[in-house]
Design a protein that fits this description.
- By secondary structure, the chain is an alpha/beta fold.
- It is built from 11 helices and 11 strands.
- The protein has a 4-stranded mixed sheet. It has a 4-stranded mixed sheet with strand order 5-6-7-8. It has a 3-stranded mixed sheet with strand order 9-10-11.
- It is globular and about 75 Å long.
- The chain starts with a strand and ends in a 13-residue tail after the last helix.
Length: 381
């Protein structure tokens, strides 16, 4: 996700924090300090409310992280490649490959809400115990708020609307019942579009009645609706690409460049020969070593281009998406690590034989997608 920075690892999975996450902490802690805590535990100083509000906000962020970590751990145990976990202003996102079976998808999708519900129950129980046994009003209020927030998060995520976890669960059930993953994706995506639209309307109604939370509800609804639309489009595309081999799509032959060339020589000698925005690199042994973005090379200062080699600013082969000519295109796209802009290096016996870009996929998809029906105009008499 753009605008995020790495922040270590969780269970071996890279963890990233989006710039909007601290903003969410600030908003949550402010609401707790000024409204919730004074109402639930009156009579305390402003310093106590401020500290408790910050603790409550951080506890909820930790709960969001636990929710996403459950997805990541369950996916990795099922053999799914997990790229990273990102916490941002509307929750969390776990980037991973796609499940091979409906059962695996069901387990991965359900693990997050289940974790939130368990944390919510523990939070409420801890709040009641703290209040009855220790009579710590502020601490019990923070725990109770965190518990209810987790319960709400778990229930909300179980709504049967993609990209929410409930939508993934619905997709897994339909996939299992009907044996058609793409159709199940479209159904879950359509429900996501409807749910997102309803949330936008509900948020607008709240906003017009003076409730500030309506804006947040509208943002969530827009995110769900747009993500659901993207999933519907992807399922339609994958239906069209089913059965297509990589060899049928790839561009070949490929313009390549030596990875030891300096940037100025690369721009002068190699770039004019190619027509892609990225060019694969070859090492001394003639085998591919990575891929370099032409725009990134062009953005380097003129004074440094003679000092930096192409491989120093390239994406190394270990981080590239690789395929063989006989691989199914949909299977390759299902792998983790496929990001935009799409660039797949095609190797045969370790040698580079082609490259697949988003343009290549769009070209073949246009040929295989059914043409829209022309509007029939009947003459009037």
């Amino acid at each position: 996700m753009k605008g995020s920075v790495p922040l270590g690892r969780i269970f071996g999975v890279p963890l990233r924090i989006h710039w909007s996450a601290p903003l969410l902490v600030f908003l949550l802690s402010s609401g707790l300090r000024s409204q919730t805590l004074p109402a639930w535990a009156p009579g305390q100083s402003d310093a106590v409310y401020t500290a408790a509000g910050l603790i409550g906000a951080l506890l909820l962020m930790g709960s969001l992280l636990a929710h996403e970590a459950a997805h990541a751990v369950t996916a990795r145990r099922a053999g799914i490649d997990v790229q990273d976990v990102t916490v941002w202003g509307l929750g969390g996102v776990t980037r991973m490959g796609r499940a091979r079976t409906a059962g695996v998808q069901f387990r991965v999708a359900a693990s997050g809400p289940l974790t939130s519900l368990v944390l919510g129950g523990l939070g409420v129980a801890a709040a009641l115990g703290t209040h009855d046994a220790l009579h710590w009003a502020v601490l019990s209020a923070v725990l109770l708020w965190t518990g209810w927030a987790n319960l709400l998060l778990g229930v909300f995520n179980l709504l049967p609307a993609a990209p929410l976890d409930g939508g993934r669960v619905l997709q897994a059930v339909l996939w299992w019942r009907r044996g058609d993953r793409e159709r199940a994706e479209r159904v879950a995506g359509r429900t996501g579009q409807v749910a997102g639209g309803l949330l936008v309307v509900a948020g607008w109604v709240e906003l017009t009645h003076g409730a500030g939370a309506g804006l947040w509800l509208m943002l969530v609804g827009l995110f769900i609706s747009m993500s659901a639309l993207a999933e519907v489009r992807r399922s339609i595309l994958e239906t069209a690409l089913r059965g297509v081999r990589v060899a049928e799509v790839m561009s070949s032959p490929v313009v390549t460049g030596a990875d030891w060339l300096t940037v100025d020589r690369f721009l002068e000698e190699v770039v004019p020969k190619g027509h892609h925005s990225a060019i694969p690199l070859l090492g001394f042994d003639g085998r591919p070593s990575g891929i370099v973005d032409v725009r990134r090379l062009s953005a380097l200062p003129l004074t440094r281009r003679a000092e930096i080699r192409a491989r120093d600013v390239a994406v190394p082969l270990a981080r590239c998406v690789l395929a063989s000519p006989e691989d199914g295109l949909v299977d390759v796209l299902d792998k983790g690590g496929v990001t935009a802009p799409l660039r797949i290096l095609v190797l045969d016996a370790g040698q580079l034989v082609g490259i697949v870009t988003g343009h290549d996929i769009s070209r073949i998809a246009q040929r295989r997608l059914p043409a829209p029906r022309a509007t029939q105009i009947r003459p009037t008499v």
